[in-house]
């Protein structure tokens, strides 16, 4: 058969994402062009490859058989491209990553500085995502990889590796200085105004699970959209709050806020990298991944 091999490349991405629009985005193409190419491929091989539905597409048995061969071929091609990339790929280009606010503040910034000093010609695109948004952006091929804070859940072909850990602590403004010499229980927190992130965040879910494990409800009196908003509210005496310890240490040292001991032990949280094992990335993105992932081993 004399079939345009570009059709097989397009087929690979449509089958991978089960969606014409997502495939078009990954290919830098338009959805009508992708649809037209797949219609042509089906006609030329005389097989129905997809079942169309409102949510996207599903592979037919014939489509599954073709994908098994095409995906193997694409893996070899992508591996060859990586093999041929050299240091010249680090003199220019761009890297797109998603980062949760906590991950950016307490882990990623120093690594980005190291990378930028080594490769000043590489443009960095940093997207401020919640953990679920960042994972979804990786899944849809919109970014090269993500660095997020747990809790987080991923499914194949996404992979998640742990980069580091951090501890949440309870803090209050200077009007709560007396509490700095005491130890409170979770139950006693209901006697004080509480500040926390909104219910749509993974941080809220983390503390909600923590409180529920002790038979209590996590119900902040003041909810914020970002972690950065919590510290000014604590300094303004709006209540007590849980914060990542690295983000609170400077204010504690300057006696702007106080750390308050808690009877119950708060579980550790992790900073993780999430990437798609099948998604091809540039030499620059591979190098940044290496800088970020290798630094936690030092």
TrEMBL record:
Record SUPFAM superfamilies: Periplasmic binding protein-like II (SSF53850), Winged helix' DNA-binding domain (SSF46785)
A single GO molecular function term of this UniProt record: DNA binding
Domain of life: Bacteria
Family per similarity comment: Belongs to the LysR transcriptional regulatory family.
Pfam families tied to this protein: HTH_1 (PF00126), LysR_substrate (PF03466)
Coiled-coil region: none
GO cellular component, one term: cytosol
Keyword annotations: DNA-binding, Transcription, Transcription regulation
Protein name: LysR family transcriptional regulator
The keyword Transcription regulation appears for this protein: yes
Ranges of residues in domain HTH lysR-type: 3-60
InterPro entries found in the cross-reference section: HTH-type_LysR_regulators, LysR_HTH_N, LysR_subst-bd, WH-like_DNA-bd_sf, WH_DNA-bd_sf
